[in-house]
Amino acid sequence: MNRFSAFALVGKFIGNLLVIVCLTSSAVLADTVTASVDTDWHALVAKWEIPDTPDSIAVAATLEMLSRDDPDFAREYVMAMMHPDLQKDMGIESLTESMIQYQQKIGEFEIVEGGPIGPAEIELIIQELATSNRFVISVLMDAEADFSIIGLMVEPRVALPDFESLEAIASYLDEQAAADAFSGAVMIARGSEILLRRAYGDANRELGTRNQPETRFNLGSLNKFITQIALMQLVERGLINLDATIGTYIDSVESELLDQITVYQLLTMRSGMGGYFRFPEYEQNPISFDGVDDYLPAIFNAGLDFEPGTDQRYSNSGYVVLGAVIEGVSGMSYDEYVAANIFEPAGMGDTGAFEYRRAEELGLARGYSLQMGGDEPQDTTEIWSRRGTPAGGGFSTIDDLLKLDRAFGEGALISLESAERMLNMMGGQDLKEITGKLAGRIGMAGGAPGVSTVFHIDFDSGVSVIILANMDEPIAERMGDRFFALAVNLE
User: Fold this and answer.
1) Rounded CA gap, 442 and 434, in Å?
2) What is the full DSSP assignment across 65-92?
3) Which of 139, 334, 367, 460 shows the smallest number of beta carbons within 10 Å?
């Protein structure tokens, strides 16, 4: 069976070596490749048993490049597959050298597994035939540019052990931190009992400031859970109808899309909106983006990737617009609303959309990434907007997230019926019967350069696992599942 038949060729930033940014569409890549180099890149698609679509060319070319100990081919790959702006900024020779290093790290290999790890994300696991060493290959495709490749990461895959005790988890974390392979904070709790609460690594590498359990970490997309709760509060109060178009609640921007998209479609990522990180306005001057209104013109000018309601695709822009809905109904800024209606009732005094560039003053962990080039982790502060949004990028602590877990599960923020309805909608189970009781497990994750977070809640056992890391994803996700498996089975 074709090993790629079950998924689309998409991807994201991941791992800990090198990020490659490419802005052209797949179709443009194909035309450029066949016109500018000798290799028949299309033929590689068949060789690697990948469906012959425009999206597959870059993935097949990457696999071929990694399989060859051939500096000339590495250079050819750079010139054919990487955007001219990237070639100009980083230099063809520098990029070629990085590819040669990849080739030298990896011997003859086979693909052992691969699949989507999220919307617009692909992760492949390859295994060297001689050593059985495994590597993760991750490719970032831009849904707003025909799923063109904009990121490439290659890293060794280190298998996590099956932990048999909390002491084994603590020892593993100590080892990882000592090897500079983990930096962040970890909370494992069951009911009112804190099983593990520790921090590792540096909040500021330059100053030598250590992470503490009280350190505020970038949440990444965990913010979306907060936005969902805020929205459901207003639904519960009869102030928002999920089936109404968003123009019913937003008057801060003019667009024909206001009458085409419903609140429900934004909530469940069926609106057709994409993400704002690749907007030229954002890339050129991210710090100029502060409040929700700063994003709206660019979001609505970008148009839609598909007709609302006809597809489902991950959408950061959609959640910023949800923030605008909340603002329009409440008469408060998004940040003011969630502070007064979620953080304060839950006792979350260390959570908010704090300014990234005031990290030391506000006790924030700076993010550090190996996806920005170089051999050492780079501070990611300057690639972000002024502060986080309803889609992600706020800050919190492991203690505050545990408080959020408890307040949500106890019905202190929204009724258990509304909470159950919200989780059903997010899980694609809109028609599931509402029982008024939360059951089972939910898991959330966030990630970006210098950000890796995971939040697992099991309503049956009362177990919570929270990992906030100021380093590249997917370290938190990988640890989270194993830690959770132990915690729910502890005697």
Assistant:
1) 17
2) HHH---HHHHHHHHHHHS-HHHHHHH-H
3) 460
For every residue of 195-213, DSSP letters joined together read EEEEEESEEETTTTEEP-T
pTM value is 0.75
CA distances from 490 to 458, 481, 484 (A): 14, 15, 10
Residue 436 tokens read as: 């008024």
Distance CA 251, CA 268 (A): 22
